[in-house]
């Protein structure tokens, strides 16, 4: 199952489809094939593995990170492909939360295939969260990215903020941006920095339009149409509200699964206070400002308001430090209201 998870993780972005990996094992437990889903219109992980294995798939065990789908979309049901190939057993980690594709386990059982579930379920849920949060919690998954000095400041007193971190960190950000299907900033950050909010390659050139996430600009302030966020490099959606729940509802209407929140401590603070940030990625530069603007404008007034955080990864990126973590729930009821910004 870990090999299947690794295969799924190796694909940069599959949205709006889930990341899925599949390993086919012969009756002696030897790997026959390793498959992965690579995005809409491409074979699902099970079909990818079955095509590699050919006739050797008969009597095999399919180890899959997600319950095999049981519906016809751009491709046929994986359940029927597994049945037709003569697979004897299917082991999967997590049930499909999408009601359109769910029910595969019952179809496989009815066809006489042995089914086992729950293997490495927690790891699989973590992998699937950016896709599955819309089904689990009826909203997109939110990743907040920020860059700051070691004393937690993201801009100098005069408002300047480019560049706090080095070129290695800025390139690293592009890989994470590419995993999302929306990049979001507040109107204040857009007016201050005139960002493009796009995914760029190693030469700092924007990727083609078809590969770009949707750009989301949130707030009630008017942005002049000559700002770069309105260029033709990527689609742009304006959401004229200051309420995080309304923002996420609008993103659901636009079929957004994973939004990259970047730019603007007030907008980030509104999502943080509402308990709507699922993951943060912070880049810390080896420098101090001493005064300036904090990376986050929250509502904490006392140490009792400290927010619990689970750190999942820490590493050097060039001269900077990258920290990845998962915020816990807001410690006070007042911090979960999401009153806007």
Largest sheet: 8 strands, mixed
* H/E series: HEEHEHEHEHEEHEHEEHEHEEEE
CATH H-tier superfamily of the largest domain: Dihydrofolate Reductase, subunit A
How many whole angstroms does the radius of gyration measure?
22 Å
Shape: elongated
Instruction: Return the domain count.
Output: 2
Q: What is the total tally of β strands?
A: 15
CATH class of the largest domain: Alpha Beta
Looking at the overall shape, the CATH architecture of the largest domain is: 3-Layer(aba) Sandwich
Low-confidence stretches: none
The total of helices stands at: 9
Helix content percent band:
25-40%
Our estimate of the beta-strand percent is 15-25%
N-to-C span: 43 Å
Provide the spatial order of strands within the biggest beta sheet.
10-9-8-11-6-12-15-14
* Computed structural class: alpha/beta
Mean pLDDT: 90
CATH topology of the largest domain: Dihydrofolate Reductase, subunit A
Active site: 46 (proton donor)
Organism: Aeromicrobium phragmitis
Domain CMP/dCMP-type deaminase: 1-116
Binding site for Zn(2+): 44, 69, 78
């Amino acid at each position: 199952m870990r090999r299947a998870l690794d295969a799924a993780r190796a694909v940069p972005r599959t949205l709006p489809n889930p990341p899925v990996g599949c390993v086919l094992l012969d009756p002696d437990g030897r790997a026959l094939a390793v498959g992965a889903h690579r995005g809409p219109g491409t074979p699902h992980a099970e079909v990818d593995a079955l095509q590699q294995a050919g006739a050797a798939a008969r009597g095999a065990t399919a180890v899959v990170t997600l319950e095999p789908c049981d519906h016809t979309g751009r491709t046929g049901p994986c359940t029927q492909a597994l049945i037709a190939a003569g697979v004897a057993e299917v082991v999967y980690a997590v049930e499909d939360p999408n009601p359109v594709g769910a029910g595969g386990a019952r179809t496989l059982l009815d066809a006489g295939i042995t089914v086992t579930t729950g293997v490495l379920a927690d790891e699989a849920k973590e992998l699937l969260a950016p896709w599955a949060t819309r089904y689990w919690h009826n909203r997109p998954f939110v990743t907040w990215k920020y860059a700051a000095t070691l004393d937690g400041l993201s801009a100098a007193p005069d408002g300047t903020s480019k560049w706090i971190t080095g070129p290695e960190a800025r390139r690293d950000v592009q890989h994470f941006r590419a995993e999302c299907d929306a990049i979001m900033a507040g109107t204040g950050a857009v007016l201050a920095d005139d960002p493009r909010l796009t995914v760029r390659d190693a030469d700092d050139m924007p990727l083609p339009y078809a590969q770009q996430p949707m750009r989301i600009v949130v707030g009630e302030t008017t942005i002049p149409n000559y700002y770069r966020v309105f260029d033709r490099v990527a689609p742009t959606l304006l959401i004229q509200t200051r309420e995080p729940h309304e923002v996420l509802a609008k993103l659901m209407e636009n079929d957004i699964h994973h939004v990259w929140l970047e730019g603007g401590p007030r907008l980030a603070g509104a999502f943080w206070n509402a308990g709507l940030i699922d993951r943060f990625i912070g880049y810390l530069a080896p420098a101090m400002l001493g005064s300036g603007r904090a990376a986050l404008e929250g509502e904490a007034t006392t140490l009792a308001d400290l927010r619990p955080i689970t750190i999942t990864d820490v590493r050097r990126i060039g001269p900077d430090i990258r920290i990845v973590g998962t915020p816990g729930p807001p410690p006070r009821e007042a911090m979960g209201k999401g009153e806007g910004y």
